[in-house]
């Protein structure tokens, strides 16, 4: 027997949650097969089979909380003749007599109410599109599917009244089922008064805890400014094709902001510092976190030693982290540390916001939507592409003067991008 154990978690992570078993007890497995996904406070881990054999026992089911190095299943090495021969015999009648059971196993992320609705309308969960893309079918998904495919609702009203009439020949009793089954009462009820209770992911729980702690433990203040994005946009438009051809990655705005923030941090080291009990820790390096939105929530992977990175290096690393976030492949090392954070709410259309600190960091920069606005330039009104910037900072160690001058430095560098190259 080989024990399947929870991987050794990071020191700051004490527990994890089992997300979904990809194998069932009795299934044959090969070395390297992904048995189950495990969600921690920061990342999603895969637990692979350590040897060929049969998954004889699952000790912890989906959704259960486990600890580091805990045994969650057992695999019997090699191929045995007794147990594999007995289990197909027990499973065969289930496949023949209960084909409906395939729906819950194929769509594990459905609530009982959703499964009842699918069963009532004689549907297959595999045919219903998941609109949110999170692997969960909701009542709204089912209702929308029925609205777009009215033929899917026809078989039930045609058969049920006949069965009711055959069993109950009375005149008054069939009339009630006919009305309830031909009118869309179940749909309107679900549409107007539907509820669904979904457990928060461990990542979202941890994020909520950190946000509350940040507000309670830090003296957060936010200062705002605005930047004329026309110089950056013109420079990007002029060189984006050559940049992509030479470096194999698109030239975005984030690399300009990352470089500008790094230069500003050099001038105002207190904003790159953090508090450790009664001490202020000044960091001699620049590890900048880039907030990335994923299906599981917000994650902040870290760009290490940004002052040594080129524009192309920054863009490539951001693309790499974005792909890893979508595939749930970010590691603990990718998310650990960081001396400063940049978040871009503008990609979602945010015009102005106050970002929350990412402790123990002392500041976070918020980017927003680029919007054309009338601006006064040399006594004339000119339409310019403007962006609001927001800097939230810990007022316990960062004075208002430093915060404002830091933000003005970023503004000046972005409005004259040649200074980024000359570092002046």
List the helices and strands and how they pair.
Layout: E1 2-5, E2 15-21, E3 28-29, E4 34-39, E5 44-48, E6 53-58, E7 65-67, E8 71-77, H1 82-97, H2 102-106, H3 112-120, H4 139-148, H5 155-167, H6 172-182, H7 185-193, H8 202-217, E9 220-228, H9 230-247, H10 254-267, E10 274-276, E11 279-281, E12 288-290, E13 292-294, E14 297-299, E15 302-303, H11 311-326, H12 332-335, E16 340-344, E17 363-367, E18 371-377, E19 380-394, H13 400-415, H14 418-422
Parallel strand pairs: 12-16, 16-17
Antiparallel strand pairs: 1-8, 2-4, 2-7, 3-6, 4-5, 6-8, 9-19, 10-11, 12-15, 13-14, 17-19, 18-19
Helix pairs in contact: 5-6, 10-11, 10-13
Question: Could you describe the 3D structure shown?
Answer:
A hairpin with a 4-residue loop joins strand 4 and strand 5. Helix 5 packs antiparallel against helix 6, helix 10 packs across helix 11 and helix 10 packs across helix 13. The protein has 14 helices and 19 strands. 26% of the residues are buried. The strands form five sheets. Strands 9, 12, 15, 16, 17, 18 and 19 form a seven-stranded mixed sheet that branches. It has a four-stranded antiparallel sheet with strand order 1-8-6-3, with no helix packed on it. A four-stranded antiparallel sheet has the order 5-4-2-7, with no helix packed on it. It is an alpha+beta fold and 424 residues long. About 15% of the residues have low confidence.
Shape: globular
Strand content: 15-25%
The number of strands is: 19
H/I helix tally:
14
Distance between the termini: 65 Å
The assembly state of the depicted protein chains is: single chain
The description of the largest β-sheet is: 7 strands, mixed
Evaluate the radius of gyration: 28 Å
Classify the helix fraction into a percent range: 25-40%
Which structural category fits the helices and strands? alpha+beta
* Uncertain residue ranges: 80-108, 154-186
The overall pLDDT average reads 79
């Amino acid at each position: 027997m080989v024990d399947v154990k929870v991987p050794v978690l990071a020191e700051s992570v004490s527990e994890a949650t089992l997300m979904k078993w990809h194998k069932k007890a009795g299934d044959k497995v090969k070395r390297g097969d992904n048995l189950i996904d495990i969600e921690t406070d920061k990342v999603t881990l895969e637990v692979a089979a350590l040897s060929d054999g049969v998954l004889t026992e699952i000790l912890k089911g989906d959704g259960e909380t486990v600890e580091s190095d805990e045994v969650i299943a057992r695999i019997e090495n090699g191929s045995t003749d007794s147990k594999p021969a007995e289990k197909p015999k027990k499973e065969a009648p289930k496949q023949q007599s209960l084909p409906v059971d395939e729906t819950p196993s194929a769509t594990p992320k459905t609530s009982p109410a959703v499964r009842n609705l699918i069963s009532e309308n004689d549907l297959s969960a595999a045919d219903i599109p998941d609109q949110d893309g999170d692997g969960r079918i909701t009542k709204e998904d089912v209702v929308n599917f029925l609205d777009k495919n009215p033929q899917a609702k026809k078989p039930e009203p045609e058969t049920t009244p006949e069965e009711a009439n055959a069993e109950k020949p009375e005149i008054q009793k069939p009339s009630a089922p006919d009305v309830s089954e031909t009118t869309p009462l179940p749909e309107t009820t679900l549409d107007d008064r539907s509820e669904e209770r979904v457990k928060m992911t461990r990542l979202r729980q941890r994020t909520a805890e950190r946000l509350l702690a940040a507000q309670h433990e830090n003296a957060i203040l936010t200062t705002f400014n605005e930047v004329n994005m026309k110089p950056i946009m013109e420079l990007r438009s002029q060189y984006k094709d050559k940049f992509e051809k030479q470096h194999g990655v698109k030239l975005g705005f984030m690399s300009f902001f990352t470089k500008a923030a790094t230069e500003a941090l050099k001038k105002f080291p207190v904003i790159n510092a953090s508090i450790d009990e009664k001490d202020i820790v000044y960091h001699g390096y620049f590890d900048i976190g880039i907030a990335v939105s994923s299906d599981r929530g917000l994650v902040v992977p870290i760009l290490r030693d940004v002052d040594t990175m080129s524009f192309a290096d920054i863009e490539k690393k951001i693309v790499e982290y974005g792909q890893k976030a979508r595939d749930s492949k970010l590691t603990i090392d990718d998310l650990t540390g960081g001396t400063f954070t940049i978040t871009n709410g503008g990609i979602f259309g945010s015009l102005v916001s106050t970002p929350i600190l990412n402790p123990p960091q002392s500041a976070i920069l918020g980017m927003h939507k680029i919007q054309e606005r009338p601006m006064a330039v040399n006594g004339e009104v000119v339409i310019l592409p403007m962006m609001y910037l927001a800097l939230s900072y810990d007022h316990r160690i960062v004075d208002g003067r430093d915060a404002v001058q830091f933000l003005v430095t970023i503004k000046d560098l972005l409005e004259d991008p040649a200074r980024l190259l000359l570092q002046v």
